[in-house]
Amino acid sequence: MRILVVDDSRAMRAYVRSALQGSFDCTVVEASSGFEALRLLPRDPYDAVVTDINMPDINGLELIRLVRSSTRHGRVPIVIISSLTSTDDHRRALALGADRYLGKPFAPEELVLAVGSALAGAEA
Asked: What's the pLDDT score for residue 124?
């Protein structure tokens, strides 16, 4: 399994990588921006995308929209991790096509549960 983690914080990417690799048999590929994620997506198939919202260049909401419009990756589960935790932010991300929304800070177990749930929903 391959999971793309998109966050402009190196520390957050390491935290997410550690949580995912500790619970799933997966390869985690990291992108530091939405633009970098868009360069990586065409190169390989991904089973899930975990992305922040607040990032330079292409933000997470724009990334969701672009991924959902892709014929190759349009059905890939997307989990949002964000410090934006209002009901409006949550609703907007889900309306654009995010499968799960996790507010920062979060425990590793919460991330694993969100990703596992998104993956299970994709298989259904």
From this structure: 53
2-123 CATH: 3.40.50.2300
Measured between its terminal Cα atoms, the distance across the chain in Å is 17
Cα distance between residue 37 and residue 86, in whole Å? 25
**pLDDT at site 80:** 96
pLDDT of residue 85: 83
Across 1-124, where does the E strand assignment appear? Answer: 2-6, 27-31, 48-51, 78-82, 100-103
For the chain, residues with pLDDT lower than 50 are none
Among 48, 78, 44, 47, which Cα is nearest to 61's? 78
Distances (CA, A) of 107 to 16, 95, 124: 10, 25, 26
The answer to whether the CB of 20 falls within 8 A of the CB of 3 is yes
pTM: 0.94
